[in-house]
Automatic annotation (TrEMBL), chains A, B:
Phylogenetic lineage: Bacteria, Bacillati, Actinomycetota, Actinomycetes, Pseudonocardiales
Protein name: TetR family transcriptional regulator
Domain HTH tetR-type: 15-75
Entries under Pfam families matching the protein: TetR_C_24, TetR_N
Organism of derivation: Umezawaea tangerina
Ranges of the DNA-binding region feature: 38-57
Entry GO MF terms: DNA-binding transcription factor activity; transcription cis-regulatory region binding
Domain of life: Bacteria
UniProt keywords, alphabetically: DNA-binding, Transcription, Transcription regulation
Record PANTHER family: HTH-TYPE TRANSCRIPTIONAL REGULATOR BETI, HTH-TYPE TRANSCRIPTIONAL REGULATOR RUTR
Length: 201, 201
C-alpha cells in the first residue's frame, strides 16, 4: 500500500488558514483604507468566496480586532518584560523604546493599521483606549526617570512620551525592510537621538 | 438716501468664499478621509448646492491641491528663510525645526491632511514629490551640520532627518490648540529632545 507521501501534490489554489487570510486582509486595509475595503474586495483578492472567509472569521470588524490586537499585544509584552526589573527607570524606558522598534519592524503592517485607527467603531475605540493606556505607561516611566534625576529639567513627561513615540511610530511611514538591515541599528539610532540628541557637545 | 450701512444685516445662511469653503472641506476630509468624502457630502455639510461649490472650485481634487499646497508652501517658506543665512548648518536646522512646528500648529488641519496623502491621484503624487523634496533639503542640512562637526558620529543623516520629522509630524496626532498654549514652548521641547536628548548627563 503506497504511503501518503507518494500521492501527487495538489496543485490547485492553495487554501487559506486564518493567519494567511489575516495577512492579506491587513495588507489590503493598509492600501485602500479599512472603511474602503469590503469583504467582497477581500474575497476577490484572495480568490475565494465570501463564505470561505466567514468560515474563519465572523466579520470584517473581527479581522480588524485580530490585527490591531496583535500590534497592541506586542507593545504590551514589551512593557510587561520590564515591570519587575530592578534598576533605573531611564534604562527601563530605553528597553521599552528598543522593544517597540522591534515590534514595529516585525509587525510592520499590523502596527501601520493600528496607527491609522480613528475610533469610528467599537473595535477601533477599544484599540484607541489600549493605545492611551500604553502612552500612560510610557509617560509614567518618563516621570519616574525624572524623579530619579535622569531626565533634563523642564521637559514635560507627557510631551516627552509623545515625541519619543512620534519618532518610533514614524517608522511605519518610511521604514522598508531590506536584506541585511536590522532593527537593532534602527533602535540604536532612535535611542541615540532620544537620549543624547544629535548635537555633538 | 440711506447709506448701505443702515441696511439691516441679512440673517440668512451665510455665503461661502473659497477660503471658508476650503476650511470646511479640509475638516471633513480629515474626519471621513478624502476618498470617503463626496462633493455631495461637502454640499450637505455646507448647506449649499453642489453647483455653488463648483462656482468656486472645479473639482474635489482641486480642493485637495489647494489644501496640501498651503501646508507645503508653509514648510518651503521656512526653508527659504534660511537659504542665504550665513553661519552653521546646525543652527539653520534648528530654525527649520522651529519653523516647521509653527507651520504645523498654525495650519494643523492642512498639514494633517497632507500627512495622510498616499499617492492615489496626480495631485497626491505631486504632494508626495514635494514632501520628498523637503525631506532631501532637511537631510542635506543634517549632512552639512555633520561635515561641520556639529552632529554626533555614527548617525545616518537621512535617518536623523526622518526621526526629527517623525517627532514634528506626530504633533498632528496629539497636539490640540489650547488657550495660552504656545507653539514656541512646543518647538522648545522638540528642539531640546532633538539636539540634546532627554538624558541628563
Amino acid at each position: 500500500m503506497p504511503t501518503m507521501t507518494t500521492k501527487p501534490v495538489r496543485r490547485g489554489r492553495p487554501g487559506y488558514d486564518l493567519e494567511s487570510l489575516l495577512q492579506v486582509a491587513v495588507k489590503l486595509f493598509n492600501e485602500r483604507g479599512y472603511d474602503g475595503t469590503s469583504m467582497e474586495d477581500l474575497a476577490r483578492k484572495l480568490g475565494i468566496t465570501k463564505s470561505a472567509i466567514y468560515y474563519h472569521v465572523p466579520s470584517k470588524d473581527e479581522l480588524l480586532r485580530l490585527a490591531v490586537d496583535r500590534a497592541l499585544d506586542g507593545l504590551f509584552a514589551v512593557v510587561a518584560e520590564i515591570e519587575d526589573v530592578p534598576g533605573r527607570a531611564i534604562d527601563r524606558l530605553e528597553h521599552v523604546l528598543r522593544g517597540s522598534v522591534a515590534v514595529l519592524v516585525e509587525q510592520l503592517p499590523f502596527v501601520t493599521l493600528l496607527l491609522r485607527v480613528r475610533g469610528n467603531t467599537k473595535v477601533e475605540r477599544a484599540a484607541l483606549a489600549r493605545r492611551r493606556e500604553f502612552d500612560h505607561l510610557v509617560t509614567d516611566l518618563v516621570k519616574q526617570a525624572e524623579s530619579e534625576g535622569d531626565v533634563r529639567e523642564g521637559l514635560e513627561p507627557a510631551t516627552v512620551a509623545r515625541l519619543l513615540f512620534g519618532m518610533v511610530n514614524s517608522l511605519t511611514e518610511w521604514y522598508r525592510p531590506r536584506k541585511g538591515s536590522d532593527h537593532v541599528d534602527l533602535a540604536d539610532a532612535v535611542c541615540r537621538v532620544a537620549f543624547d540628541g544629535i548635537r555633538k557637545s
